[in-house]
Structures are given as structure tokens and as C-alpha cells.
Amino acid sequence: MAAATTEKAPGAGLLAGSGVAFVLPLLAVMAIAFNAPILLMLSWSVSNPPLSLEHYREIFETTLYARVLWTTVRIALATTLICAVLGYPLALWIRGLSPRARIIALALVVLPFWVSILVRTYAWIVVLGNAGIVNRTLLALGLVGSPLSILYNELGVLVGTVNVLLPYMVLPLVAAMARIDERLLQAAASLGAGERTIFRRVFFPLTLPAFAAGMILVFILTLGFYITPAVLGGGRVPMLSNMLDLLINQLPNWELAAAISTVLLVLVLAFNALSAALRERAA
Amino acid sequence: MTRLPLRRRTILGSGVLGGGALLAAPFIRPAGAQEMARRFVFGQPGGASTEATTEIFFKPFTARTGIEVVLDVPSSFGKLRAMVASGAVTASLWDLGSQQIEQARALDLIEPIDWDQVQPGPMFPEMKHEYGFGQTYFSTVMAWRRDVKAPQTWRDFWNVRDFPGKRSLSNFPAYTIPAALMADGVPADQLYPIDLDRAFRSLDRIKGSVSVWWTTGAQPAQLLLDNEVQYVNAWNGRVGPLEDQGIRHSFNEGFLDIAFYVSPKGCPRAEKRAAMLFLRDWTDPVKQAEYAKRVFYTGSSPNLAPLLPQDKLHLFPTTPENKAKQSLPNGKWWFENAALVERRWQQWKLAG
What we know:
The complex is a heterodimer.
Chain A: H1 2-18, H2 20-45, H3 54-61, H4 63-95, H5 99-110, H6 117-128, H7 133-140, H8 154-179, H9 182-190, H10 195-223, H11 227-232, H12 240-250, H13 254-282
Helix pairs in contact in A: 2-13, 3-4, 3-13, 4-8, 4-10, 6-8, 8-10, 9-10, 10-13, 12-13
Chain B: H1 3-13, H2 18-24, E1 39-43, H3 47-65, E2 68-72, H4 77-86, E3 91-97, H5 98-106, E4 110-111, H6 115-118, E5 133-145, H7 154-158, E6 167-170, H8 173-183, H9 196-207, E7 210-214, H10 218-225, E8 231-235, H11 236-239, E9 247-264, H12 269-281, H13 285-295, H14 320-324, H15 331-350
Parallel strand pairs in B: 1-2, 1-3, 6-7, 6-8
Antiparallel strand pairs in B: 3-9, 4-9, 5-8, 5-9
Helix pairs in contact in B: 3-13, 5-15, 8-9
């Protein structure tokens, strides 16, 4: 009996200890379905002519791709900033609510998740168009003489991206704020700190890692947006994904598309590394 | 043809088990007979045109011949390229625009239509391409809301002072650049080779009035209905059905184009034969008229006009009167210049 147990123990211990065996099937799926295609894509980007950096040269020498890349980064930055400015106070407000009200408020934040991004994006056309609710109201009140151009420009795209991504900012913040120990704030108060000082020196630093993580998440997600600029940009706000669609499905110039995708991938990995470094410093 | 014996040997020689042999049975007939599959795969764009095609062509064809038509939706060019590149060519027919045929040939993605087997009824000559079966005509036309001043020409369309209102133009340069040239005074028969500098100078003049550069056919129609813009260029099948809702369009100076069916390179032989058999149905003017009534895109038959609803003849692109007002594109020019035009187009849009 005892011998049998000792015999089994090493194997079981290995499994339970590291859990590698349990993860293997998933790793295999990831490698085959996800990593291998990415490597294939990387190889496309240096093919035709074989083994050259021709397509990368085209990206960086043609002003067009640099400008599309810059537009994409600019919109991602603006979205991040707006989500931060709107999301932080919202999370703070939710934290102060009674438990019951908090649940309702969080449900309202999460609710848009359950509506298809396509439906939500098209809904903005109804709201923001020339004959939409906003413009009709403004015209009826006599605040403007002619309809405001809110759609089919960068503003329209920003409305769409912020609408979709705000929960990604708010939820981690609410979670982080809920974890903050009240006694720390009470201790600060008992040591004579005012409301502002407590916020600045105790509360805000404690939420900073989640805040930074939320911002990087929003930034990275915006880089890959496709539907929103396609529908709300009116063809005037080309972002990288739309450029890729054109290169893959219309032209089709897959080598250049692969090279642009690789640039996007590197950009995202860089920000991911930055995010990891921030987390490390916070921990 | 040369691949056929190889295929047969592969099926027999690999010792397929019962189920496989049974499935393969229809393909294995005595030598000499042309084998015909009981099904073939068809790359279709989806939407209203695929629905109409299914009702009017696929269902009766299957009922008559027992050959099943399996849809692969949507039929983008990228998907065609991926299918041929992967070596697993499943589809025997694929929906492709006239401007992509040259490029598909250059990339070695398509093979000739077997016209001997199709044995088509009468067709307009431009619909019988070595590599493409002309399915329907479509036209890129000017359209506008009933409550604004009606333009007669692209020059009117470009004239934002006398025809005030917002515009939406196609984001595909091949549909918009010819209009820009005609607005600048180039006659339809002298559009090619295209003078790009002149086209972009003309586009500069209208850029400020264009709210939306559309990328899907449904967009310009919806923008007109919503009064988001007042003038658009659009595909006639998208604006034709909206006549009752106050949307007007004209074939004057329209740009006629052809939607082709092509055969992806290396498609299964027996299935291609079934597909060619199906194509013959598409040359039937009675069926074409049924189709045109639903989607306003007309087929290849020169005998179609008398079968169309006579009170709505002005809505169909190839009645003799409407066809005479339009011009056809030079697919070869667009193929040779596609990459250059696209880059200039995007750059021009980004510049201020």
C-alpha cells in the first residue's frame, strides 16, 4: 500500500505541481491555430520578391502608410484620453454608491456589451446624423442654424470608439477602487490629511496600476478597430484595419498587408511590454 | 481534362472504404463518358442578388437536374486568392467584377469558361469573355433626392453652386474617377487611357462637398433616404427600387459594367461540368427578366427588353435607349494601374 503510494506520488506530484500536462492541449491549439498563422503572415511580409524588405521599405517610404498609421495612433490616443477623463470620475462615483445602486450602475456600464458592436455603431447614425435626434433638437431649440457635422469625420469615429471601450476602462477601475482598504483612508484622515491630500497621496496612487492597465487596454483595442471607422468615418478616417481590408480583399496585395500587420503587431507588443513593466513596478 | 485520369486512379487506388467509394461512385463511369457531379460549389456575394438567384435559377435547376448548388458566401477576391493558393479549390464558379478578371488571370487564379459545354443562348458579345461568363450588367449612375434640382450630366453633379447639397461618392476609384473626368469635359469615348492628373484636379473641386466616401452598395441609397446627402453616385440596383420613396436616378452618362462568373483554377472537373450546365440557364431571357424585376440588374440576352415590365423600362440599364447613353470600362487599363491609382486615391483623400 505504502509502496504503491510512493510509486504514484512523483507523477501525480509533477502534474499537480506544475500542471504542464493540463495546459498542453491548450498550448497545442494555440500554437497550431494562432501562432503558426502569425509566423506564416510574417513570412508573407518578406516574400515576393523572396526574402526582401521591399514591403517594409514601401510602408516607411510612402507617406500614405505612415499617415494612416499616425491617424490610427492619434485616434487611439484620443480615445484613451477621453475614456480616462470620463471613466475615472464614473468609477469613483460608482464606488461611493450604496451596494444596490452600485449593482444597477455597473449593469448600465456593462449593458452595451450585450448589444452587437455593429448595431451600436449604426445606432449612432440615427442619433448623430443630419436628421438625427441631436441635430433635430439643436435645430428646434434654435441653437444652430444648420445641422452640425458630427458624423463622417474623426469626431464621429471617436464617439463610436469611446462608446465601445469605456467599460474596459471603468470595470478594472471599479474593481481596484473596491479593493482599497477604507482603514488606509481613515488613517490618513486621522493623521490630519484633507480630502484632496488623501485622494492625491493615498487613493489615486492605489488605483494607478488599474488606471494605467485600463488605458493601455483601450489604446491597444482601438488600434485594431475596423467597423467603427468604416461606418462612422464615412471613408474619410482611414485606420489601419480598413487599409488592411482594402489590401487583402480588394487589391489583393497580401505581402504589403502582411508587412503592415507585422508593424501593428510590433506596436501592440511594445505597448503590452510597457503595460507589463508598469504592473511589475506597481507590484 | 488531363487531370481526370489521375483523379480517377487516386480514388480507386487509395482503397477508399465503403462510404467513400459510394460517394465517389458518380465520378467513376466508363471511360469516354463525361462525368458530371451531383453538386457544385458557387461563390456568391450574398444579399438580395443571391436570394433572387437562388429562387429564380438554383431551385428550378436542382429540381430539374438533381444537381445541388452549394453556396459559399461572400465571394470576395481575397477569398478566391486564398482558396487557389491553398490548393484546396472547392468552388467551380465565383462571382467577380469585370475589373478583377484581368488581375485574377495575372495571378493565375482562374481558368477558361468551357463555352463549348455551356452552349449559351444569344448573348451580347462583351458578356462572352474567354475567362468569364457575363452574368449581369450593372451601372454606376448619378442619383438624387426628388426634392433637389435634378442633374443631367456629371458636370451638373460637380456644379455645387447651381446644384447645392452634400454628395456621396464611391470610395472605389474605378467608379468615381471616370465621373470626375466627364465632369471636367472628357467625352465618354475618350476616357481611356485615364489622365489621372486631370481626374484628381477635377476631384479637388468637389472634395469639400463630399460627406461620405461609400464602400458598400447599400450606403449611398441609405444616405439619400436619411437626407444625409442629396446627390450620390450609386449602383443602379440599389437606387432603382427606391423610386417610390422619392429617389431618382438617370442612366445618362452612366458607367455600365459587367458582373462575371469565373471558374477558379483547378476546380473539380466533374463539378465544373455541372456548373457549366447550370450557366446555360443564365442565358434564358425569361429567367433574366424575372431576376431583373427583383434586383434591376439585367442579363446577357439581347432579347430581354420586351420581357421587362414596360412601365418601368427606364429603370433597367440595358434597354436599347439606356444602353446607348452609357460607356463600358477598360478593364485592362484598370488592371495595369490598380495599385498606382489606389495609392494616389488614398493619398489624395488624406491630404487636407
